[in-house]
Design brief:
30% of the residues lie in helices and 24% in strands. It is built from 17 helices and 29 strands. α16 links the parallel β26 and β27. α2 crosses α9 and α3 crosses α5. About 1% of the residues have low confidence. The protein binds adenosine monophosphate (AMP). The site of adenosine monophosphate has 20 residues, from β13, β21 and β22.
């Protein structure tokens, strides 16, 4: 079907006027700061509401995967997070210590993260679909002293690796009798550490082409950006029912699944269960969700599902992030759900939304939108020691941001050099290739590096290759993202075998199972192909680009550094 290139602003703007362009300063003024000075995310998100008119207002409507749902008011969330703060303090956790939280989407996850922030500790939620290997790597990189988890995750993933996490002093299992007793016995009295806007608050792990994951450090002051962008890009108003479907183990699920909606005093929906089209439509309808923030993979899964969407009269805005959103999906939203999907762009390092099709703008399906107020974005090209801005429209280059937005990451934990390298000539280089059109809309082109985006999750090929190499039969491994119509990319591995091992189906299944056990379903390869030898550069690096080109039957490009062909 031939469709116009622009979808005009939707009439919902008239029902609830969008927030005015809320810059950083205005957002700062809208937040209160700690009484007596200082700034703490948990205070802004919970306690100031709990101390005011919103005390009895639902902060979270928690939908259980099985059993009874729960409504948690701001006052209750404040009290529960106080208990976690006391409990963690009692375990010897102090300001600056890293608290890892590995739970499904259960209320304790939210309370533990907020409790850690109250204590001035650095919270790091981990994705519960990670296997032992990625968990261990992250806890060790963060020097985690405590891990808050559940009995089942402990048994399945943590128990066998506790000895390999030398900094870890405590594992708190929140749903055991002992864990429950500890929480119940912890003091409910508030005692918020006097943090400043520049004190560390979160570590979110992300991946690059080479080496192990990077721990992006964010500060309490990042909330200014969460607050402003949730107003401008997600149009949050106090009476909204907001559903962010991302897991808090990824940055979206923390920035917009925990802190931004709470800071706005809205009611958040938290669904413990995994994706299911019928369930999701039921939630949207029954919970009367007004603003829904989701991801392209989920939208494509809904498009594919044999379920007719119900009427959703309360829904007034749908936004999406994390991977390219095809124009087809934007239009599907409009035609099937009555609302187009507003794509936006950001990444772990930016901490919050940077570029968006806001509700106050016409949408260009296929485009990520325009930089938000306070964000300066450009398309640049590297040259010499620095970068130059490409002023002409529609020219591909690297997407760059002018440093200084409040939620900018402040470090990669323990990797100063890697952090420094992200900033060149007064710009932060995002690692994404993009172009800007004559109207100022940005269009995603691809990644400048080899990281893989599968179902919205960023996966570092090196981490997968390392786990594969630990299998006794594997001599070398090269991992690529293979395009997939639903999840964007699936992880595909090429492995060559050590002498004495034979390529056969049984061994392929065994290596797949090995990878899944170590890495978890979210990270492990879905496909493995045997290759007699992998293409390498003369300096010995596996040429993943070449593996990918061959897989897709594309031109091999520059192979001048190729050492040996497979
Ligand atoms: P993460 O740090 O895991 O949030 O992943 C960030 C990366 O996801 C970005 O650098 C992009 O490569 C990709 N990404 C995020 N949002 C979009 C979008 N709207 N369109 C295309 N790619 C996106």
């Amino acid at each position: 079907m031939l469709r116009p290139p622009v979808i005009a602003k939707t009439p919902h703007d008239l029902r609830v006027p969008p927030n005015p362009a809320l810059g950083w300063e205005a957002a700062r003024r809208a937040l209160s700061g700690l009484p007596g000075g200082g700034f703490n995310i948990a205070y802004e998100a919970v306690d100031r509401h709990a101390a005011g008119a919103r005390a009895a207002y639902p902060a979270i409507r928690w939908l259980a995967a099985a059993g009874a749902d729960r409504v948690i008011t701001y006052a209750e969330l404040s009290a529960l997070s106080n208990r976690f703060a006391s409990l963690l303090r009692g375990l010897g956790i102090a300001k600056g210590d890293v608290v890892f939280v590995l739970c499904g989407r259960i209320p304790e996850l939210y309370a533990a993260v907020l409790g850690a922030l109250k204590l001035g500790a650095v919270a790091s939620p981990l994705f519960s679909a990670f296997g032992p290997e990625p968990l261990k790597t992250r806890v060790n990189l963060g020097g985690g002293k405590v891990l808050v988890t559940t009995e089942s995750l402990y048994q399945r993933k943590v128990k066998k690796i506790t000895a390999e996490m030398p900094t870890l002093r405590h594992v708190l299992r929140v749903d055991t009798d002992a864990g429950r007793a500890q929480i119940a016995a912890a003091a409910e009295t508030p005692r918020i550490e006097r943090t400043t806007a520049e004190d560390p608050a979160f570590v979110h792990f992300t991946s690059g082409t080479t080496g192990m994951p990077k721990g992006a450090l964010h500060v309490h002051g990042a909330l200014v950006a969460h607050y402003a962008t949730a107003a401008v890009a997600l149009d949050l108003h106090p009476d909204d029912v907001f559903w962010c479907t991302a897991d808090p183990g990824w940055v979206t699920g923390t920035s917009y699944g925990i802190v931004a909606p709470l800071a706005h005093g809205v009611t958040s929906i938290v669904d413990e269960a995994e994706f299911d089209a019928e369930r999701w439509y039921r939630i949207l309808r029954e919970q009367q969700v007004t603003v829904w923030y989701t991801a392209p993979t989920a939208i494509r899964m809904l498009m594919k599902a044999a379920v007719t969407p119900p009427p959703l009269p309360k829904l007034r805005l749908i936004a999406s992030v994390g991977e390219p959103l095809n124009p087809e999906a934007v239009w599907w939203g409009k035609e099937a759900l009555g609302l187009p999907i507003h794509d936006n762009w950001w990444q772990t390092e930016t901490g919050g939304i940077m570029i968006a099709n806001t509700p106050a703008m016409d949408i260009k399906p296929g485009s990520m939108g325009k930089p938000l107020p306070g964000v300066e974005a450009a398309i640049v090209e590297k040259g010499g020691d620095g970068v130059s801005v490409i002023e002409a429209p529609n020219v591909e280059g690297e997407l760059a941001l002018r440093p200084g937005w409040p939620s900018m990451f402040r470090a990669y934990l323990g990797q100063e050099e890697r952090y420094r390298k992200c900033f060149v000539g007064g710009w932060y280089l995002t690692g994404d290739l993009a172009r800007r059109d004559a109207d100022g809309y940005f269009w995603f082109v691809g990644r400048a590096d080899d990281v893989i985006k599968s179902a919205g999750h960023l996966i570092g090929p090196f981490e997968v290759e390392s786990a594969l190499m630990e299998h006794p039969a594997v001599a070398e491994a090269g991992v690529i993202g293979k395009p997939d119509p639903v999840v964007g990319e699936v992880v595909k591995a090429f492995v060559s075998l050590k002498k004495g091992f034979e390529e056969n189906e049984a061994l392929r299944s065994e290596i797949l199972a090995h990878a899944r056990k170590r890495l978890g379903a979210a990270v492990a390869p879905k496909e493995i192909a045997f290759a007699p030898g992998l293409p390498r550069t003369r300096s010995g690096k596996i040429m993943r680009r070449l593996l990918k080109a061959r897989e897709l039957g594309l031109p091999e490009g520059d192979t001048s550094t190729l050492e040996e062909a497979a």
